[in-house]
Each structure stands twice: as structure tokens, then as C-alpha cells.
TrEMBL record:
This is AraC-like DNA-binding protein. Keywords: DNA-binding, Transcription, Transcription regulation. Residues 212-311 form the HTH araC/xylS-type domain. InterPro entries: AraC_XylS_family_regulators, Homeodomain-like_sf, HTH_AraC, Tscrpt_reg_AraC-type_HTH. GO terms for molecular function: DNA-binding transcription factor activity; sequence-specific DNA binding. Transmembrane segments: none annotated. Pfam families: HTH_18. The lineage of its organism: Bacteria, Pseudomonadati, Pseudomonadota, Alphaproteobacteria, Hyphomicrobiales. It comes from the Bacteria. It comes from Aminobacter aminovorans. PROSITE patterns: HTH_ARAC_FAMILY_2 (PS01124).
Length: 317
């Protein structure tokens, strides 16, 4: 991952560095701070595969544009997908500004001029290869700018998966390539329209992306002893049986994944040789039955919780 913030460069060079960073990693743009004396930014970019970048940008209020002279100089014609956390306005190809609501998705071909006004905002961005996206979603070429509302079919899954990649970047070339395939499939589904016919060719990516989001939510709520597949399904907008099928395709059940994740959490706590008791650690990890915890722990790690804790204490002496 590459990252640049206001405090990385002298004040007089900040805009030049920002322009260079964004151009090299995401898109060719020019910025003009609304308050030059107090302009702040923090931008990052992570590369999935050739032509595909996911990134985050936090800006104080700024005006931006992709003017024709810059378009002629860099020749870019790929798509820039953006999701903002605040409302903003964008004018495309010299037309009157459009109001974009927070959470909406926009897709803009970089061969098109634009200008935008951003308040203090967090911007989430994905750069997508035009030919690769068009092969999956021919409709993308019907216009240079696509505005997809936050409540459109498939939009939440695409946004959620992109967020997950930014926070938990996949490791290794194979993982990045697979994640890239998922992003293109999900973007194509949103552009083409999430009908059953359009969903069929990308069903594997839909399931994989949904499963990763489910796992991430489970890990965030790991310590809740009342966490159930029904509760997760309700929050994800799917059925419990659908979640069970996704896990079964990986050769594991929802309950087994939850149990193993909680055991790993407990093991790490025991291995720190802290003052907490075994029972307190078990309950803090989400277990509400100490006997079940002890049996499952020994089966998974080949040692009892007390033995792991004792070994950790000996290392600290």
C-alpha cells in the first residue's frame, strides 16, 4: 500500500505531491483547496492487479477537476468508481452540476472532463480497467458517466466489498487477483442491472464477496455470546440458509467458523500471560459454557487452556 498525508511534505509542496500521488496511483486530477492555509489530506492506494487500484482519500474542502489539457496529456480512458461519505456536486463534460448523495456510486470514464466540489469528506475510490469492465458489462460504454444510487440492487454489496478490501487487503498475487475478479464482477452486475439473468455468470463472485462480508461482521461481534446466524442474516439482508450454504461450499459450517474464531481469540489472550482467569477469558471470547470451551480448546490446540496459560507465565519469568 502507498500512502501520503499533509504532514509528509512541506506546505509549499503539498499540492504538487498530491497531484503526483493521485496521478500515479489512481487518476489524473487537479485540486484547488477552498482554504489553502488549512488544507489537509490523507490518501492511500492499494494495488490488486494490473489496472485495478482501491484507495481512500480524506480531504478538507476542495475543488477538483479533470480538464481537457490534462486528458490530452495523460490519455487515460479507464473508469474511476467513487463513493463519498458526504453529499457533493459534480459537473461532467461541461454540463450543469449533478447532486450526488452520500453513499451513491459514480463511475466516470477518464476520457471525459469533469469538475467537482467536495466538502470535508472521506472518499472511497476504485480504478477499473475500461476494457476489462466492458467485457463483463457492455452497457458501461453507452455513456461516460454512471450514477448508481445507494439503494440500487447490488450497490451495497459492491460498496461493502470494496470497503473490506481497503481495510483487509488480500495477501499474495493469487489473493489480489481473485479479489480483483470479484470487484469487476460486482461492478458489472450493478452497471448491467442485478437481474437473475445478469447475476448468473457472476454468482461465484457474489457468493464469495457476501461470505467475506459475513465473516468480517462475525469477527467484529465475536465476543457477543448471543451472536447467531439468524442475527447475521437479518443484518445482511439474506436468509440463514443462504449463509449456511456459503459456508458449506468452503467445507465448514457457520457454527464451526464462529467457534474456531472464538478459540483463536481465547488462545491469544491466554498466551499473553495476563492476570485474567481461564473462565474470564472464555466468557470474554463469547463462550457461555466453560465445559464446552475446555473440550473444544483441547481438541483444536492439543492442550488445555490452563496448560497454555501456564506456559505463557513460565516464559515471562
Amino acid at each position: 500500500m502507498q500512502r501520503l498525508s499533509t504532514f509528509d511534505v512541506p506546505a509549499r509542496d503539498r499540492l504538487a505531491y498530491l497531484h503526483d500521488f493521485v496521478a500515479r496511483h489512481v487518476a489524473g486530477l487537479r485540486f484547488r483547496p477552498q482554504d489553502a492555509d488549512n488544507f489537509a489530506f490523507d490518501v492511500s492506494a492499494y494495488f490488486l492487479d494490473a489496472g485495478t487500484t482501491v484507495g481512500t482519500a480524506c480531504y478538507s474542502a476542495v475543488l477538483g477537476e479533470r480538464p481537457k489539457d490534462l486528458m490530452a496529456a495523460d490519455g487515460r480512458q479507464d473508469y474511476l468508481m467513487t463513493i463519498h461519505t458526504t453529499d457533493y456536486e459534480v459537473a461532467v463534460a461541461g454540463k450543469p452540476p449533478l447532486s450526488i448523495k452520500a453513499g451513491d456510486i459514480t463511475l466516470l470514464n477518464e476520457a471525459t472532463s469533469m469538475a467537482f466540489a467536495l466538502p470535508n469528506t472521506l472518499l472511497k475510490v476504485v480504478s477499473l480497467n475500461e476494457a476489462r469492465l466492458a467485457a463483463l458489462a457492455p452497457r458501461i460504454r453507452q455513456k461516460a458517466f454512471h450514477h448508481i444510487r445507494v439503494d440500487a440492487a447490488g450497490a451495497g454489496l459492491l460498496t461493502g466489498y470494496a470497503d473490506l478490501l481497503r481495510s483487509q487487503a488480500p495477501e499474495g498475487e493469487a489473493g489480489r487477483r481473485l479479489a480483483g475478479n470479484h470487484i469487476y464482477d460486482l461492478a458489472a452486475l450493478v452497471v448491467q442491472g442485478a437481474t437473475s439473468a445478469n447475476a448468473e455468470p457472476v454468482r461465484a463472485s457474489l457468493g464469495a464477496a457476501r461470505l467475506e462480508l459475513i465473516k468480517a461482521e462475525m469477527l467484529r461481534q465475536l465476543t457477543d455470546p448471543e451472536l447467531t446466524v439468524t442475527a447475521i442474516a437479518r443484518r445482511q439482508g439474506v436468509t440463514p440458509r443462504y449463509i449456511q450454504r456459503l459456508f458449506e461450499q468452503e467445507g465448514i459450517t457457520f457454527s464451526e467458523f464462529l467457534r474456531d474464531a472464538r478459540l483463536d481469540l481465547a488462545y491469544n489472550a491466554l498466551d499473553l500471560a495476563g492476570a485474567s482467569t481461564v473462565s474470564a477469558i472464555a466468557f470474554d471470547a463469547g463462550f457461555n459454557d466453560l465445559s464446552h470451551f475446555n473440550r473444544a480448546f483441547r481438541q483444536r490446540f492439543g492442550a488445555t487452556p490452563s496448560e497454555v496459560k501456564a506456559a505463557a507465565l513460565r516464559r515471562c519469568q
